[in-house]
Write a structure and sequence with these properties.
Layout lengths: L6 H24 L9 H23 L1 H23 L7 H17 L4 H22 L2 H20 L3 H11 L5 E5 L4 E5 H18 L1 H22 L10 H21 L1
Antiparallel strand pairs: 1-2
Helix pairs in contact: 1-5, 1-8, 1-9, 2-3, 2-6, 2-7, 3-4, 3-5, 4-5, 5-8, 6-8, 6-10, 8-9, 8-10, 9-10
Length: 264
């Protein structure tokens, strides 16, 4: 087995997730959002994700042009939310936000096959969606949702295999629902949900427990993801669900960080 270049993907993931946590902090500090603390909220989000996944699979399989239109809409919407947050201190944040969101969408339209364009569209969407959901959920429902999705991820990859079909369709059509992460040997394609979920949970933890616990939890999730990439490094073509690894690492470090906070 060749030596795994773990530092590059780890630093990329860490930068993305910390950026999401910073966006989440801005939302928590400046935007009045009702925080949903009931466990039933997890079920609502899960059913919404199931419905969205079914629509995406149908579009990828039967109507690729419709999938492209949906992608552009989602990229614009997610990017606009992100820029609205980043420009919230300006006199009229909507104007630069719409302009920049349109620019990101335009780049996806003009350079649909370029890796940098795919990553840009995915990144701005992830940073707009993940922190916003996390800021609106309490820790318990966000953790329950993460656990449910980890089980679903396992079933959808190894049992029903529909997530494998979705991933192949997304990669074939160059849809910005995944990010390409480089290592010395190969590109790893990571689903947007695998980046959104730890961002969402760590934002919820930030609101409830502060920066220390949020960052330690976040790093735990990234360790789980890096372990998976290490396992897959010499197994090109093999597909594995990422959320179970992320979930174990994140929850393990979350519990550990609560103990550290008590001691401090």
């Amino acid at each position: 087995m060749q030596k795994f270049d773990w530092k590059t993907p780890f630093l990329i993931f860490l930068a993305i997730e910390l950026a999401g946590l910073a966006v989440g902090s801005l939302i928590i500090s400046n935007v009045s959002i009702p925080v949903k603390t009931g466990a039933s909220e997890s079920l609502f989000f899960f059913l919404y994700i199931l419905a969205t996944t079914a629509i995406v699979i149908a579009l990828v399989k039967y109507l690729p042009k419709g999938m492209k239109a949906l992608e552009l809409f989602v990229v614009f919407l997610g990017s606009e939310v992100l820029f609205e947050i980043l420009f919230m201190y300006t006199p009229n944040p909507t104007i630069p936000s719409v302009i920049l969101a349109l620019l990101v969408t335009y780049l996806r339209l003009v350079f649909p096959d370029k890796v940098w364009s795919i990553n840009l569209g995915a990144l701005t969407t992830i940073l707009g969606v993940g922190p916003l959901i996390g800021a609106s959920l309490g820790v318990i429902p966000s953790i329950i949702l993460l656990a449910i999705l980890a089980v679903y991820d396992y079933i959808s990859v190894f049992k029903t295999k529909h997530m494998v079909t979705l991933a192949k369709g997304v990669m074939k059509e160059n849809i910005a629902l995944m990010m390409a992460i480089p290592t010395r040997k190969r590109l790893f394609h990571i689903g947007g949900g695998d980046l959104i979920m730890p961002m969402m949970v760590s934002t919820s933890i930030l609101r409830a427990n502060g920066w220390l616990v949020a960052i330690i939890s976040l790093v735990g999730g990234l360790i789980g993801l890096i372990y998976l990439l290490w396992y897959l490094y010499d197994k090109k073509g093999k597909v594995m669900p990422a959320l179970p690894f992320i979930t174990v690492g994140l929850l393990g470090c979350y519990l550990l960080s609560l103990g550290v906070k008590v001691l401090i």
